[in-house]
Design a protein that fits this description.
203 residues; alpha/beta; TIM Barrel; eight-stranded parallel beta barrel; two-stranded antiparallel ribbon; 6 helices
Length: 203
């Protein structure tokens, strides 16, 4: 089970999430978001977590509608929300945000592969792109998770992650607000508890 902690806003928080056992961290490039980090901050976070690259830990740039002018070559993935697209040779996490898109993809193909990239399924509602810390009927994701390499997001916390995993069996879990004390401020007790619960479930 892969664990992605998203909404990283400082170099220290990136390091501490990897220290706690996260497989991936995400940095949000979207100015309306309280978790927005500009190109300079992204570079500083990547500098801080560089030693973890040798442990196969991954970094993700989360974008909405448009990409920054500069994409650091050390980034492992770009996560595409809204109308964003990326022609660069970088792996992608493609966001599925509604039932119509989910069902269209299910009807198109039976393959479990996605060109070495992934889907992120988050069908909760809110004022911003992303899961908005709002839970939804995760059981609706089960067939999609069986067919495609899928990260699941939206309202997931250390307290409910067992239930989410039991219902869906995804490739990975993506959490941001569920491990925060305030928007953009990670609570590392929650981060550690989330990771512990997921690892216990996997065993």
């Amino acid at each position: 089970m892969h664990i992605k902690i998203c909404g990283i806003t400082t170099p220290e928080s990136g390091q501490r999430c990897f220290d706690a056992g996260a497989d991936m961290i995400g940095m949000v490039f979207y100015p309306p978001s309280p978790r927005h980090v500009d190109v300079s901050k992204i570079r500083k976070i990547l500098n801080a977590v560089e030693p973890f690259r040798q442990q196969q830990r991954k970094t993700v740039l989360v974008v909405v509608d448009s990409l920054p002018d500069e994409i650091d070559p050390r980034l492992d993935f770009v996560q595409l929300h809204g109308s964003a697209s990326c022609e660069l040779p970088i792996k992608q996490i493609r966001v599925v945000k509604n039932c119509q898109t989910r069902d269209r993809l299910l009807n198109q193909s039976a393959t479990k592969t996605l060109d070495d990239s992934f889907y992120l399924l988050e069908m909760s509602r809110g004022g911003l792109p992303g899961g908005n810390g709002t839970d939804w009927n995760w059981s609706e994701a089960k067939e999609f998770c069986e067919r495609f390499p899928t990260f699941l997001a939206g309202g997931i916390t250390p307290d409910n992650v067992f239930d989410v995993l039991a219902q869906t069996q995804p490739y990975g879990i993506d959490v941001s607000s569920g491990v925060e004390s305030a928007p953009g401020i990670k609570d590392f007790n929650k981060v550690r508890q989330l990771i512990k619960n997921i690892r216990n479930y996997s065993r």
